[in-house]
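Crash report, auto-generated. Payload:
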Amino acid sequence: MSSTAEGLKARPRPQEASDWFTIPAPLARLFKKFPLLTYPPNELPARSPDIRHVPTLYVFISDEDALKGLPSFNPSCLKWQTFLKLAGVDFCLRSSNNHASPTGALPFLLPPSTPNDTRSQRPIATNKLEQYGLDNGKPKLPESLGTRLEAYESLLDHRIRNAWLYTLYLSPANADLLTNLYITPTTSSRPVRATILYQLKHAAELEILKSTSRDAINPAHLYRGAKEAFRALDGVLGDEEWFFQSAVPGLFDATVFSYTHLILHDGLAWENRRLNDFLKEFPRLVSHRNRIFQRCWESGE
Amino acid sequence: MLVRNIFGGAEFLSMNASAGTRTRSAYSAEFSTPINSDPNLRLSLDGLASSTHKPWASHEELLKGGGLRLNWAKENGDRFQVGYSGTWRQLTGLAATASPTVRGDAGDSVKSAITYLFQRERRDNPMLPQSGYMMKTTTELAGWGLLGGDVGFSKSEMEIAGAVPIPIPGSKGPSGISIGCGLRTGLLYSLPLSFGLSGASPSRLNDRFTLGGPTDVRGFSLGGLGPRDGTDALGGDVFAAGSVNMLIPLPRVGPDSPFRIQLFANGGRSVAMKNQTKSNDTASGQRMTASSVLKGMLSATKEVGTGLPSIAAGVGLVYAHPVARFELNFSLPLVTREGEESRKGLQVGVGINFL
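Recovered output after restart:
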């Protein structure tokens, strides 16, 4: 402890120095000696994730399903989960919520990281996930198809999505399903659940109104739009295995699958089955969904 | 805003709204009334909505809640409080570099807790103690039994501080020199929710103790002690911190002035309960049995006493205003753990309760 005593004597000096940005060299050398003793780091708490060497996709999913790597129940999460699986990226899933996301919405991917390197902890948001999948995947995936794709993507992003939002979030028949998926896992407190449910429904309503540019929501109109969109998708798929005559399924296939799978999924207790009934009129879309499911979840990993 | 004597019985209603950099916004309201016209027995009802930026763990915490408290004081000045509080906490607004641990704890949780507080103040001047002692204990029980909520734990904290005046031989009257010491400890024990059939969840980021900073362990940044994931301070389930300081009046100003020179050494240790059953599943931290919680807490408590605590020492100037105490300290760390954030150099502290 003799150097401690020296340190004590030397201390008041920098306060006298008017310019403390340039610490004199002998003082700087002395400062460098502190701390005199450094122990190894503290251990992390029990809830800290152990797995850091594998990329982790944060999605809406139950904890049990996340362990098994099962499909998420949220279309945008499922879209990227499917895409990364199709791209052959090795990743694990973690159940999460929108508060964890850098963009305010799931999913996002945390690349493999080391705790001491904060840059490696930067999450990858959805707008960069396609590139990440193409860079880190194994098989060759079809490149983006440009404007033709965009036209069909907008069918999914608007017509099908609006009908989905209405069916899950606003249709009273599916209120129990919505509560089970999004509200029950967040908290056990009734008033908080009611508040979150209200916020969620309100957000869904705003999304639909923004997308349709109308003053009120017209369910018949939304469902008609969804049916037309399914017909168009069925037409463009034709009798091919994957969309746009591609040899392997790509991002667009994953996007279509994210809706068709959830609409047809028996594990979700749909009470309002309008979308399900529509989709069954297009067997080619149903078998497309089955092909993707087999490729991603049924072929031995 | 403060309204006194609303119904003519020494009730008061106070409402506060504030905004700032760390506490982005805070709104609170409290209604307090004496019971049986006894000024030493008060019942108060309060509500709170706040948003606090916590840069040491890369997030923002939104709180909405309310509580009911019963305060009573004895003739000798000892104060007691029992209360219930229910709070909806939202951990949100994460920084881009937030660690996986903070991302994992983001989201909603509800704390429903009963608290018990005891405080004995026997110091001559709490802002600049020359003699006497104080003792404060806080106990909180959350989520157990019929309380409900999403988090279950018992959380106890104890603080003891004391000071003795040092007379100068040969001079009459108080010298103004004193030696003080303080000790704080706390323990957070995870309990199962309701009646314990589902196992206990390990503690969350916003329930654990943060240690370090200009008003507790000086020479460390806010939350600078304890486990860290990258740059994020995660807090500990068990902590102990102590300090020794000597207050000396400024030459020529004398012992009656509110200024003192302070020599101090303080240190502490903050340890989180780690998961004993290391497995490869991501959800391993979700549920623990009673015996694994006990084992985890025992090993964490043992870890607190392993090796030297993290220590810093230094010298500074203290100004004790009646409302708050101001400190400007120069300190150097002596012992740290890797990753802990110590400060070499100057640190400013403003507060009412220093270690």
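Post-recovery validation: Chain A touches chain B through 59 residues (CB under 8 Å).
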